[in-house]
Write a structure and sequence with these properties.
The chain is α/β, with parallel strands linked by helices and 454 residues long. The chain is built from 16 helices and 14 strands. It has one domain: TIM Barrel (Alpha-Beta Barrel), CATH 3.20.20. Helices cover 40% and strands 13% of the residues. The strands form four sheets. It has an eight-stranded parallel beta barrel with strand order 1-2-3-4-9-10-11-14, surrounded by four helices. Strand 1, helix 1 and strand 2 form a beta-alpha-beta unit. Helix 7 crosses helix 8. The mean pLDDT is 92. Keywords: Flavoprotein, FMN, Monooxygenase, Oxidoreductase.
Length: 454
């Protein structure tokens, strides 16, 4: 795919997702049925999307007032989340080209299990697997994994670096030609081409080898969303795709330039990292109808549902602040990118905390509201203005939001030559224009301090 064409990912939630969207009459509540996700997968593949992307969370968040009540009552972020790897397996069974991305945390998982899971998914789908790497930061998650509190930020990323190093070693533990399948010899797999990894580090001791051959893509596509200085450095070294969110074109352009520069500093080709900011387009036959739909969806957002989600993202108990005053400056142990985004919105629009909760829960990232042509105009402006390499499309409600985008906006982008009309490859790396990593590629991505240890 040419650099003159954008990439599209779909941000799918294995649960209700947005605190207002699930209440919309057009929303279909099939979150516990495989057919629900399979139908979304078929829609996205018909629209020639690069991939479907699933976020995940390992608890029902209780950061707002120390209770899960606002999450469960309002159907917010973590009120219901199925295991995304199992959901992707069902989607992979009914598609041939659509990439499939699942979030797995390096904080509470083990490298062998994760490397094995994604290698398996990559084989079963013919090279369409992607791993969204996260470092968990919530005490509620820690308490589900034998800890009273979360790891400090620095330690989370140090663990993540070693985790990725071990995963890379495990994917490389089979040479590409190790599986021989010579029945006459007999030689199933050549022992000389399957290697122990013998890793002994600060966080992990793993002998190897993996019991799954090297993935079709070499490594699954690696996705990351770090927005802190440490997170951006991690993403610039390891990521093939970066997921982010921005409150304005200008902040997206600044982030894009910074990440590409960081990648070059680490010796990587900046074109081998695709930056796909999140957008939530709302589309109508006329501008007025689209704005009416936006207003209807916005009215369905309960302010405390949005604040509960924001409290989770920031890792700050927002219930301690007056609802009818503005969000004060706070120290954010959680996602710095979300804090910068809401600070920008608060300062720009003068919102109280209550208003911010409603805005955050019903936010339309990028401000793309209008006809298909108007939404395409906005996407084209961001793409040609060096703010992104494409977009991660969130649906204001599922599955209808994806159906509207693929049937109305995608054809408009295709008419402008900005998006593919057919898949030209088979693997997710093919779709994204990413090279297949050679064995040992992980050695070029670990930080200098870890190279000395390795």
């Amino acid at each position: 795919m040419s650099d003159s064409q954008m990439h599209l990912a779909a941000f799918v939630t294995a649960g209700p997702g947005r605190p207002g969207g699930w209440r919309y009459p057009g929303s279909v509540p099939g979150w516990l049925n495989q057919s629900y996700y399979q139908n979304i997968a078929r829609t996205l593949e018909a629209g020639r999307f690069d991939l479907a992307f699933f976020a995940d969370i390992l608890s029902v968040p209780d950061r707002f007032g120390g209770s899960t009540d606002t999450q469960l009552r309002n159907g917010a972020l973590g009120s219901l989340r199925l295991d995304p790897l199992h959901v992707l397996a069902t989607m992979g069974a009914v598609t041939d080209r659509l990439g499939l991305a699942a979030t797995v945390s390096t904080t509470y998982a083990q490298p062998y299990t994760v490397a094995r899971s994604f290698a398996t998914l990559d084989h079963l789908t013919g090279g369409r697997a992607a791993w969204n790497i996260v470092t968990s930061f919530q005490a509620a998650e820690a308490r589900n994994f034998n800890r009273d509190s979360q790891f400090p930020r620095e330690l989370r990323y140090e663990r993540a670096d070693e985790f990725l190093e071990v995963a890379g070693k495990l994917w490389d533990s089979w040479d590409d030609d190790a599986l021989v399948l010579d029945a006459e010899e007999p030689l199933f797999a050549d022992p000389r081409r399957v290697h122990a990894v013998d890793h002994a580090g600060e966080f992990f001791t793993v002998r190897g080898p993996l019991n799954v051959p090297r993935p079709p893509q070499g490594y699954p596509v690696l996705i990351q969303a770090g927005a802190s200085a440490k997170g951006k450095d991690f993403a610039a070294r390891w990521s093939d795709v970066i997921f982010c969110s921005h409150a304005s074109l200008e902040s997206a352009q600044a982030f894009y330039a910074e990440i590409k520069e960081r990648a070059a500093t680490h010796g990587r080709d900046p074109r081998q990292i695709k930056i796909l900011p999140s957008i939530t387009p709302i589309i109508g036959p006329t501008t007025a109808v689209a704005r009416q739909l936006h207003d209807e969806l916005f009215e369905l957002v309960p302010p405390l549902g949005g604040l509960s989600t924001l409290a989770y993202h920031l890792d700050v108990d927002l219930s301690t602040f007056p609802l009818d005053e503005r969000l004060p400056d706070v120290e954010v142990p959680g996602v710095e990118g979300h804090y910068r985004e809401v600070r920008e919105i608060t300062e720009r629009d003068g919102l109280t905390l209550r208003q911010l909760g409603k805005q955050y829960g019903g936010r339309v990232e990028g401000g793309f509201v209008g006809t298909a042509a108007e939404v395409a105009d906005g996407l084209e402006q961001w793409f040609t203005g060096k703010a992104c390499d494409g977009f991660t499309v969130q649906a204001p409600y599922q599955p209808g939001g994806f159906e509207d985008f693929t049937r109305q906006v995608v054809p408009e982008l295709q008419r402008r030559g900005l998006f593919r009309t057919e898949y030209t490859g088979n693997t997710l790396r093919d779709h994204l224009g990413l090279s297949r990593p050679e064995s040992g590629e992980w050695t070029h991505r670990v930080p200098t301090a870890r190279k000395v240890l390795s």
